[in-house]
Design brief:
The chain has eleven helices and no strands. The protein is an all-alpha fold. The chain is globular and about 45 Å long. The relative contact order is 0.19.
């Protein structure tokens, strides 16, 4: 069994709960409160600032040129492709200093950065993979079950459920499998744990947007 198959099976119960989230169901129906979606977009922009840094950090640690090039490309997409999508909804450029991350967003970003700096690069790669693979799954799920009549969030749905994103996800999974094939069994288990943890953090992130999560003061 490939490492990616092990990781997906381990995290699948969490993924199934993600699909049941009110945020995802109403996003698919096109009935999601715009305030909640905009809250999510702002938090996602904050998250992607550090996610892009982690992707670039992984690239710097990889030995193979093609793997480095792939992660540099992923980081570049964070800076430009997804940023442009965020701006299309907000109508203006988002500055990192303008966004106060929620507890869930801060936890997710901190976990990724900690993993990058303290864990083997294989584990860091596993940690960033849910943001590819889970989003692909959610995008595909919504395309199959959505109300396509005038859905105000269609651009978001098309981006993550589309073929261009599929190519990036397949590449990221393939690289993780190649790296995992050179790891010990203990290292592979550490990769699975990181993947499952970040799938749980994806659940928290969407749930926090639904609740408009904030700080006490």
């Amino acid at each position: 069994m490939k490492w990616s198959q092990e990781a997906w099976v381990a995290a699948e119960p969490v993924y199934e709960q993600i699909l049941k989230l009110a945020f995802i169901q109403e996003l698919a129906a096109g009935t999601l409160d715009r305030a909640k979606f905009m809250f999510y977009i702002e938090q996602d922009a904050s998250y992607l600032i550090d996610y892009g840094k982690v992707l670039a950090g992984i690239a710097a640690k990889l030995d193979r040129l093609d793997h480095r090039q792939a992660f540099v490309s992923f980081a570049n997409d964070c800076m430009f492709v997804e940023r442009d999508m965020h701006e299309s909804y907000l109508g203006h450029e988002i500055k990192a200093t303008d966004i106060r991350p929620t507890p869930s967003c801060l936890l997710y970003k901190s976990y990724l950065l900690k993993t990058l700096y303290e864990a083997p690069v294989s584990v860091a790669m596993a940690a960033v993979l849910p943001c590819f693979w889970v989003y692909q799954g959610v995008g595909r799920h919504i395309l199959q079950h959505q109300n396509k009549e005038n859905n105000p969030y269609q651009a978001w749905i098309n981006m993550y459920g589309g073929k261009e994103f599929d190519a990036a996800v397949s590449l990221a999974i393939g690289i993780c499998d190649e790296v995992a094939s050179q790891c010990t069994e203990e290292q592979r288990r550490a990769m699975v744990r990181a993947y499952v943890m970040c799938t749980k953090l994806e659940w928290m992130f969407w749930d926090s947007a639904w609740r408009l999560e904030g700080w006490l003061v």
